[in-house]
Amino acid sequence: MALALGVDTGGTYTDAVLIRDEAEVIASAKSLTTRADLAIGVGKAISAVLEQAAVGPEQISMVSLSTTLATNALVEGQGGRVALVYIGFKEGDLDRHGLRDALKGDPALVIAGGHSHAGGEATPLDVAALEAFLDTHKGISGFAVAAQFATRNPAHELAAARIITERTGAPVTCSHHLSAKLNGPKRAVTAVLNARLIGMIDRLIGRAQDQLLALGITAPMMVVRGDGALMSAEQARERPIETILSGPAASIVGASWLTGAENALVSDIGGTTTDIALIRDGKPAIDPNGAQVGGFRTMVEAVAMRTHGLGGDSQVHVVTEGLGGGVVLGPRRVLPVSLIAAEAPDVVHAELDKQLRATTVGEHDTRFARRVPGIHAEGLGAREEVLLDRLGDQVLPLSDLLRTRMENGALTRLVDRGIVQVSGVTPSDASHVLGRLDAWDADAARKALELVSRKRVGSGDVLAKTPEALAQMIVDQLTEQTSLILLETAFAEEAGDFGIPSADLARHVLTRKGLAGHRGLLALDAALNVDVIGLGASAPSYYPAVGERLHCKMILPEHTGVANAIGAVVGRLTLRRAGTVTSPSEGKFRVHLEDGPQDFNDSEAALTLLESVLRSEAEGAVRDAGAEDIRVIVDRDIRTARVEAQEVFVEAMIMVEASGRPRVAAG
Fold it and tell me: What are phi and psi of 247, to 5 degrees?
């Protein structure tokens, strides 16, 4: 009997599940994710599932981890302080291609260097400028290096990486290691995001492995990639960007395993995000353009997933414009008031009671802050340092923490870096008030919603007459926003083009009237013509109403709350390697390799060498990751052009995929 342990570390909960012989779920458990020390939440979830199944740690043959932390970090703009070394490009490219946005104020160095399309050196690498930059920029947690045409010749990226490592010891991400495709700016964005995530994912994996050993589990550990396949923990530490959409991808694999669905939309609601994807012919669709998360298009191969900042812990924003007013949710996650009250009841209840006694609603009502211990705080400004000193290790109301308007920006920067967490009213609080959830402090949730309900809208009336009325308003808004993003996905995936952007179609007056079954001179009907699989711990609370709104079948499978952890267990170890052959002149065929280009006079000889190198790399990497029964698939994409009635070789891309089942330890 083989027992596999799946663990999913999300923004709010850490889930654990035990599966016997890849066929049967025998136990599952949840624990709150502990951001200060992720191992605590991981350990509690694993201990609970082992106790529930009455099995010993020595019986576990494999452990697999999926996580939404990388996805959440990019959606929320969090991560370590990084620097970009941009070689052979122009300063203006930083603004034109979104790199300034990806850097979020972190430093960038644009220096001479880079190669030509054919792989020859365009300009020598400016080593002196790089060394001067490193001497004047300290407190960098990771570096990203992107050079012009590095996929044709990576020599300058490798040279820069060597210098950075020798001088700083910080981890370096080379863009050509993340993708074999052209498009330097897009590779640079991907490298920046990878560098930003390295510290976070390294801490997660390291602490998870420590906790496994502490519990007596010695089985090998895998991590889910964004395409639903598995990679080794060591590979994930080097390329954490490949774990973006890891949790959502695992949820799709889990949904398919739980339901056997051939065609369905999967909607997975967590604490921070709702992730929507399409299962077509039994398989999740892969995004050909690369994963898009947090507004950034990357070169990471991942499930075609639409990630939205909408979850159980999404911040509730009050809309005061208009006569009726209303609420909007997300995209930022905040600590539910009910949760922070459960952790610091005296402080939170005393402040909420004080706010309730006031004659007017305060700007910072229901808002508290706490520092996240264990998160390094290098490179902070003076205002940020002042706020951290004032906050210390306590929970403070924002009205006590913030003393000037200018400190608001400093607090936002601390939240973006993941150093401080702030509370606010969320759908989770609304669920406590409505009696749908009793995990934390329902009394605090009710006080918080009463405060928010007192806010005035355009008519001069209060937003809601009771906390219960506001709670239902919040839940109804979650239903509406979920329905809209499901419709948007369906319109985007339709075979035919409607000629209007999918987001506009989802909100179009005819769509709304059709969903409402309009009857007048026109009869309008609209419905989602595909089943929806609802995943996530809160899906049974929220999603039946979504199914009613969209007139579709809503499937809520057993174990829906731990589908991510299930998907983490049932995937395959898969590694892909890609490379290019070009033709710089007639009769010459150039293979672009890690150690430089090689030329041949015969195209088949060039293709054969590249395929052999890629096959060796892919098979070796997947075997080192712990796979057995390895199978290899080779795809050749050869581009030709017709010149004077002859087919002329232009370029070829070879992709080699090696995959196998994880090798299980003796149980």
Answer: -60, -50
Q: In this structure, are residues 298 and 289 in contact, taking their beta carbons and an 8 Å threshold?
A: no
Q: Is the peptide bond before 331 cis (omega within 30 degrees of 0)?
A: yes
pLDDT in tens, 629-645: 899 999 999 999 877 77
Helix H or strand E segment including 452: helix 442-453
pLDDT per position as a tens digit, 18-64: 998 777 899 999 998 887 777 888 899 999 999 999 999 999 988 99
C-beta separation of 184 from 89 below 8 A: yes
Average pLDDT in the chain: 90
Amino acid, res. 619: E
Residue-wise burial string across 562-585, b where 16 or more C-beta atoms lie within 10 A, e elsewhere: bbbbbbbbbbbbbbbbbbbbbbee
Of the CA atoms within 13 Å of residue 357, those in its CB half-sphere come to 6
If one counts every other C-beta atom within 10 angstroms of the C-beta of residue 381, the result is: 12
119, amino acid identity: G
Backbone dihedral region of 539: left (phi > 0), alpha (psi from -120 to 50 degrees) or beta? alpha
Identify the three-state secondary structure at position 353: helix
Per the CB < 8 A criterion, the answer to whether 232 and 621 are in contact is no
Is residue 662 a contact partner of residue 627, using CB atoms and an 8 Å limit? yes
pTM: 0.73
Q: What is the DSSP string of 20-78?
A: ETTTEEEEEEEEE--TT-HHHHHHHHHHHHHHHHT--GGGEEEEEEEESHHHHHHHHT-
What is the SS3 assignment for 388? helix
What is the Cα–Cα distance from 63 to 568, expressed in whole angstroms? 9
Contacts of 620 (CB under 8 A, 6+ apart): none
- 494-499: list long-range contacts, CB under 8 Å, 24+ apart: none
Let me know: does 194 contact 541? Beta carbons within 8 Å: no
DSSP state of 508: -
Catalogue the long-range contacts made by 51-56 (C-beta closer than 8 Å, 24 or more residues apart).
52/27, 52/28, 53/18, 53/26, 53/27, 55/3, 55/18, 56/216
**DSSP state, 587?**
T
Long-range residue pairs from 582-585, CB within 8 A, at least 24 positions apart, any chain: 582/117, 582/118, 582/119, 582/152, 582/650, 582/651, 583/648, 583/649, 583/650, 583/651, 584/118, 584/119
> What whole-number distance in Å separates Cα of residue 55 and Cα of residue 59?
7
Closest CA to 196 of 116, 78, 313, 62: 78
CB of 632 closer than 8 Å to CB of 619: yes
Could you give the CA distance from residue 316 to residue 477 in angstroms, rounded to a whole number?
10
Residue 401 contacts residue 369 (beta carbons within 8 Å): yes
Q: Quick check: 269 and 535 in contact, CB under 8 A? A: yes
Q: Dihedrals φ, ψ of 245, to 5°?
A: 70, 15
Q: Count of CB atoms within 10 A of residue 152's CB?
A: 24
